[in-house]
Amino acid sequence: xxxxxxxxxxxxxxxxxxxxxxxxxxxxxxxxxxxxxxxxxxxxxxxxxxxxxxxxxxxxxxxxxxxxxxxxxxxxxxxxxxxxxxxxxxxxxxxxxxxxxxxxxxxxxxxxxxxxxxxxxxxxxxxxxxxxxxxxxxxxxxxxxxxxxxxxxxxxxxxxxxxxxxxxxxxxxxxxxxxxxxxxxxxxxxxxxxxxxxxxxxxxxxxxxxxxxxxxxxxxxxxxxxxxxxxxxxxxxxxxxxxxxxxxxxxxxxxxxxxxxxxxxxxxxxxxxxxxxxxxxxxxxxxxxxxxxxxxxxxxxxxxxxxxxxxxxxxxxxxxxxxxxxxxxxxxxxxxxxxxxxxxxxxxxxxxxxxxxxxxxxxxxxxxxxxxxxxxxxxxxxxxxxxxxxxxxxxxxxxxxxxxxxxxxxxxxxxxxxxxxxxxxxxxxxxxxxxxxxxxxxxxxxxxxxxxxxxxxxxxxxxxxxxxxxxxxxxxxxxxxxxxxxxxxxxxxxxxxxxxxxxxxxxxxxxxxxxxxxxxxxxxxxxxxxxxxxxxxxxxxxxxxxxxxxxxxxxxxxxxxxxxxxxxxxxxxxxxxxxxxxxxxxxxxxxxxxxxxxxxxxxxxxxxxxxxxxxxxxxx
Amino acid sequence: xxxxxxxxxxxxxxxxxxxxxxxxxxxxxxxxxxxxxxxxxxxxxxxxxxxxxxxxxxxxxxxxxxxxxxxxxxxxxxxxxxxxxxxxxxxxxxxxxxxxxxxxxxxxxxxxxxxxxxxxxxxxxxxxxxxxxxxxxxxxxxxxxxxxxxxxxxxxxxxx
Lengths: 620, 160
Hints:
A: alpha+beta; 22 strands
């Protein structure tokens, strides 16, 4: 920037500097206090911006003073442009602020002349966005950051004019910036206590679709929003502003769900995310989205299901008729003869259906990186070749799922229970689970038969005392079924439970540290009935003594009897290091009285006592 | 973040510019070999900061095709190469079927008119069935397979 530009900038700043020293017009004061201006500055309810980057603000006090930032922004908008690099000008870096302020005030009166911004215009025109979708990726129990699912925005290009595919659309992601070699445990801890920066990023949607659907086997749900073009443009401009801005990431409540909701709230009057909540899940945002109106009509226009490779395999398999399934079983029982498979007894479309299921099956089984050392890579290749040998034809399956995430219950759970214990007097019990689900209420948007909770606490109380019954800092049961009955359909399962618990069912003063982990196999014994066996190890004791460690075998049967009724039977045999053994048996049943209300009955027995409980719980 | 993508592209274009000078006019560069797209998508040293939820995503340094000039690495060809690399399995399966959302997207990226789809896909299907049947296919890595698919589809598009 040459000397004349600097001088001009200085002269143009003088009126604004003076303005800040004298009474600011009521019009500007009103704008500074408006919710939209403060949303553009990404202010929280505490009057402070979530943005950490200094270059997001023109005023030194912009992160906390909306009026100072407004005056400084107007000043920056009026500053002369560097003709050789217009994209660095304030108008080009903050197009949403410019677009919105232009609608609020006569910006010409502030010496502001509209500029052309090549980079932003290219971004904007390249997108040519006609609508915006919110993409919900179902939970993924192999990655702590994705336990609760994930949200993306998809900027939908005008398909009719551009003959464009959804896969080519741009997706906007929000996530913590984590070093690629970060230790997983450190990653969790630092994520919880806010040690990572986070940012919005843009990428073609096909990268995300491939990663989620093909690699992580997660279903995607697309909720297309009804937004007017003017509001779409404002959101696009704001995304551009945010792509270089750093946030502070907190795993529980300043995560992708919260900040995606904040971004959309720029053009909404209803609140999608409550900032005072201690935890925020993507599913709760989807529920709020579905309940919100925009210009007198539902905000969500359409809902589309994009199944994962695993879901496609299961659905393709379920659509096969008996003869097709028999042929499929016959083929996979002798995969070495795949090259000689003869399906001539079937119609061409039936042959397509069998081979497409085979392709999904071997794709699901194979470990691609193992190359020739994994024989499933060979089988996959031969299955694909079978399809090439048939006449071309589509895979005619209408993939569908009733498990729309917004239909699910609310994520947090509280229950009040009455307990009768054979070794104690009867007492009351309160259970609080901040999020997310257990095997009996794993429904829409959750991993079936599985459990995931953090910070779940159960307190007992009687006339004389209040005691800790159970505390799970982290509890995961990742249960897989072999839905197809085909060999190798991944059915390995695992569990982890860390926290504190009473050492015996018949004791209320035996608080002990608990750590349980195990690995096992599950299968679908009948429709909606999963049976899983585990071998595990654990620790349950008041002191750090090896006598409290144990090996365990566990058998769990979970049955979704009806849409409202579910039951679970659990046996666990523990073999302690000091020679003790303990047999634990539990039966739990749940009946959903309403979407956010349930009734539960449970029986638990160990060597010391039998306990019976009745509970009424509600989701919030 | 957008600057990292631009930086990656700039690097790939720098590679491309020198390679392209040796090509016959009109032949065009191959984004895999000439534009460095393989290196761009499989960097030896991953970027220090990746977004937490796409740790396993190969596309963290994806190329933004809009910045590629037609004279060097054509935008649509770079787009097509990146798309093929990321969607290879879906593409070979859909090529066998003769249709599908990924195949349709690839035709769009390469600006193949709907009237030409059947011919391009038919040619692609014939060639890919021979290639996959070859004994050496399994030993090839994803990058090599993608490059072959790219070359085949470009050839099919050019011949219609």
